[in-house]
Amino acid sequence: xxxxxxxxxxxxxxxxxxxxxxxLFTASSLEASQxxxxxxxxxxxxxxxxxxxxxxxxxxxxxxxxTSKQLTxxxxxxxxxxxxxxxxxxxxxxxxxxxxxxxxSHERVNQxxxxxxxxxxxxxxxxxxxxxxxxxxxxxxxxx
Length: 144
Known about the structure:
By secondary structure, the protein is an alpha+beta fold. It contains 3 helices and 6 strands; from the N terminus they run H-E-E-E-H-H-E-E-E. The chain is elongated.
């Protein structure tokens, strides 16, 4: 029914095939930046952290924003964004906190005893993550 002819094998690529191969090869080596939303909240009672939440997720739609400061994290052989964001959580939080955060403080004095509750919040913030060589470059985006 079907017959395969092994007598004629063309080992040369035609010009259109070569161009297509080159485009596919270079497109696979390019890495586009991904946009994520990051948020953080911590509550501190009497100088002890009682709760902390750190979330990031991929943005569902493209955002019109201006780029701001960048943080470069050395991450050799690692391109998994979840691992990078969790292992470098403190650096990332410090970087975002330098550009603004919300704080709320409640203090109470009762019978010469002081009690305080402080809430620190980084509202949902857009960031992009690019990979270049052995580095992850995190850029904060400022929306209008």
